[in-house]
Amino acid sequence: MSGNFSKNPVDASVLLLLALANGAVLEAGLVQDPRWYSLLYLTLPLFALLLCQRLFTGRRKRRQQELLDRFSHQAARHGLRFSCQERLRDGMLGLDARKGRLFACERNDNGSFKAQVLPLHDIEACALRSEHILRLHFRSPQPPVDLVFHPGAAGTAGTQRAGRWARLLGQLLRRGPVA
């Protein structure tokens, strides 16, 4: 058995069987060696940890796939083709530079999705509000929209993404509509 348990899905069931076998041997009194107890005390918590990790990872992957499916479906419904797209904290952001539209699809607190098509000509300015939050200000009296970027594994990755989008949108807003 390798030392890397995250790559082989059989490892969790092997650990459970090993723990059950250890427990059966100890209960039957077949072995008096205290090392068996140590093995049992190591395998049971390790099995519980791996099981929790698998459940959490599976749920996260399903949520990400659901978000991607919803994002793609809504974008196709609006006839958008993205020149660039980015994952937000609880959603996705896409830019169709040819049509001059910004598309944001975000998951609400209740689990439903909210999709917004934001024409670039309606956006007056954009600014970084904090480390990984990009705020869009509109020409109309509509309140500003905050786009919260996913921080990622590194703490500065979200800042770089939000800054990159702020520069990109700033250039598009100065340039004007695309013909």
UniProtKB/TrEMBL annotation:
Annotated keywords: Membrane, Transmembrane, Transmembrane helix
Chain ranges passing through the membrane: 38-56
Protein name: Uncharacterized protein
Lineage: Bacteria, Pseudomonadati, Bacteroidota, Chitinophagia, Chitinophagales
